[in-house]
Amino acid sequence: MRILTISLLMVLGAAAPTMAQTERMPDANTPGSWQGGTWYDPDLGRAIFEGYADHASLWLRGETGKVVRFDRTVGTRTVVAENVVDLMPDATRLWVLTSAEREVQIRDLRSEQSKPIRLYVEETPIISLFETGQDRPGVLTGAVAFRPTERGWGRRALAATLAAGEVVFDGQTSLYVGLNRGEFGGGLRRVDLDTGTISIVSAQSDDPCGGALSPACQPVVGLFPAPDRPGCVIVGTGLSHLGLSMGHVYRVCRDGISSEFNTPAPTLRDRWMLMPSPWPLDDLVPLRDGWVATSRGRFFRSRDGRVEELALRPFHDWSGLRISDEHDGVLFVVGSCCWGDGTLFLTLSIPVLD
What is the pLDDT of residues 210-227, one digit of tens each? Predict the structure, then answer.
């Protein structure tokens, strides 16, 4: 799950969580349109929250609560799920979590034979799916973590109410929840699945904004398990607010927090900076051999421990979307638009699954 503070994006413009900048978005015919300075899609709404692709399909989740499948060969679109809370890849599967009243359903969008898995819950909000290493994912609510068992579901009550965020399982006994509150911070929480206790994960500092993963100042824009070390996760944070910006990637393990990457500052500030500041990060997405993170007019690609800064791929109009060609296992899609003078928009990284 990826969390975006869309209301702040629409109101605050360049003061909101990071937005990517390239050329002005052109008008386009329906089903997607940029007319009137904002983008709107009849199926996805005013924003795309997350997406995944394989060689045949592209799945996007919009602010309408729908998931739309696009045929990558001919561009046709089909609404494949409604009332969607989360999308999550898991090995060869792409799980979708839907919620209606007290029933949630889970199914695999990559399998036409997938039968819905049902779970009845009284606790709200429904936050996210999480991997379990089994044939079914777990479900996290604001009060309870549900894990599959041989006879159904195991239920672990949480010690405190948990806010919605991006969730990953560390492969051992913990969930990590990344919060994104835009200019108001967010930070990282650890949920112990054995006891239900919740702790804030951050470095100690006398400065409220000085420590790594500061809850007051660092919104989490991406989170995934570290592929080379069980029990650890990779966390991306990013913010652009009042002319200042930053972007960090951390490795978080039980024994501490270490820095993986800090975005560089340009030699000359762009017009959204008061002074040259480190580039903000909009997202952080795992790929087969590393990760990718987007910023204004550029993206950062990590592979074999090295990070390159590259220009965003050109966008073209396709099935009502603004989308790039696939390159190096990733697509880029304009997720929402437009702020400032009509040139600021949010870019999403879409991993292409095996």
Answer: 789 999 989 999 999 999
